[in-house]
Amino acid sequence: MRAPASTLTVLLAAALVRGARIPQRRATICNGHAELCDRPYGNVTFLGAHDSFAFSSDPLALAADQRVNLTQQLDLGVRMLQAQSHIFENELKFCHTSKILLFDGGTVQDYLTTVNGWLEENPNEVLTFLFTNPDGASLSGMWEPAFQASGITDLVYTPPQVPMAIGDWPTLGDLIDNGTRVIVFLDAGADTDRSVPFILPEFEMIWETPFDSTDPTFPCSVNRTAGPLSTADHMSLNNHFLDINVLNSGILISDPTDAPTTNGVPSILANAAGCAPLASNRNPNFILLDFANIGNGTQAVDQLNGVQ
Ligand SMILES: *[C@@H]1O[C@H](CO)[C@@H](O)[C@H](O)[C@H]1NC(C)=O
Ligand SMILES: *[C@@H]1O[C@H](CO)[C@@H](O)[C@H](O)[C@H]1NC(C)=O
Ligand SMILES: *[C@@H]1O[C@H](CO)[C@@H](O)[C@H](O)[C@H]1NC(C)=O
Ligand SMILES: *[C@@H]1O[C@H](CO)[C@@H](O)[C@H](O)[C@H]1NC(C)=O
Ligand SMILES: *[C@@H]1O[C@H](CO)[C@@H](O)[C@H](O)[C@H]1NC(C)=O
C-alpha cells in the first residue's frame, strides 16, 4: 500500500511542477473569433471609431462624430478608439476644435477609466488606442499619469523594439495570454520622447490615408508616414469617414445622413481594395468610421478578416 501512495505523490509533484511551466490559460476566442487567436496583430483588420469621445445621441449636436457612448462602441465591435487631446487649465482632456464647434469629451483619465472597466469585463479583447497630441502634452508629465490613475497601465503592451515592422507583432492570443492586450499609439511626441515605453509613435508603424475626405470614393494615397521603416513594413489605417463642405465655405462637418452608405460593406471594401496596391496587397489594419453604430462596419471587418 505504501509504494503506490508514494508513487502517486511523485507523480502528483511532477504534474505540479510541469503545470507551473505551462501557461495557466490559453485564449480560445480572441476578439470574438477563434481564428484570430493565432493571427499576428499586424495581420488583423480592426474596426475603429474616429473621435470616439465625441458622442451624442442629439442629431443637432453638429460637433459629435459618434452617436453612441464608449461602452456601446466597444460592444458593437470597435477595437480602435481614436481621440484628439487638448490641454485645458493644466488638465489633459479629449476634445476637438477642428470643426465649427468645440466638443468637450471630459478628461483623458475619466475616458481611460471607462474603457478600463469595459476591458475588465471583456478579458479576451485586444484594443488599440490612437490618440493625437496637438498641444504637445508631456508623455511622462500628463499622459502617463492619466493612464496610471485609470488602472489601464496594467494591460498595456510594450514591444521589444520601436519601431515594430508589420510582421514583428505577436498574435492576438499571445497578447491576451500575457495580459498585454492594450496597444497605445500617439501621433506626435512619442518619436522623440521614449520615456514612457508603452506610448508608441504612430507614424513610424502606421501610415494613414487622407482624412476629412469629401469624396465618397475615398481616393487612396499614403498621406502620413514616418520613421526608418518602408511603407510596406508599416500597418495602414483608412480614414473612412466622409465630411461635407458646408455651403462650400471650407467648413467641414461630418454628415450622419451619408453614414449608412459610407459605413456599408461595399464602400468599406472598395476603399480597402483601392488602398491594396499601396499596402503590398494587404487589407488595411484599421478602418476609422464616424457614426460607427450606423451601417455595417463589423460585417465589413469580419469579411476582410475572413471570419464571418
Ligand atoms: C452608455 O450608454 C448605455 C445605454 O444608454 C448606458 O447603459 C451606459 O451606462 C452608458 N455607459 C457609460 C459609460 O456612460
Ligand atoms: C509573454 O511574456 C513572456 C514572459 O514575460 C515573454 O517571454 C514573451 O515574450 C511574451 N510574449 C509576448 C507576445 O509579449
Ligand atoms: C494629407 O491629407 C490632408 C487632408 O486629408 C491634406 O490637407 C494634406 O495636404 C495631405 N498631406 C499629404 C502629404 O498628402
Ligand atoms: C492577413 O494575411 C492574409 C493572407 O496573407 C492577407 O490576405 C490579408 O490581407 C492580411 N491582412 C492584413 C490586415 O494584413
Ligand atoms: C447595414 O446597415 C444599414 C444601415 O444602418 C442597416 O439598415 C442594415 O440593417 C445593416 N445590414 C445588416 C445586415 O446588418
TrEMBL record:
Q: Pfam families under this entry?
A: PI-PLC_X
Q: Which GO terms describe its molecular function?
A: phosphoric diester hydrolase activity
Would you indicate the residue range of the signal peptide?
1-19
Keyword set, alphabetical order: Signal
Which InterPro entries does this entry report, sorted A to Z?
A: PI-PLC_domain (IPR051057), PLC-like_Pdiesterase_TIM-brl (IPR017946)
GO BP terms: lipid metabolic process
Keyword check for Nucleotide-binding, yes or no. no
**What name does this protein carry?**
PLC-like phosphodiesterase
Species per Swiss-Prot/TrEMBL record = Ceriporiopsis subvermispora (strain B)
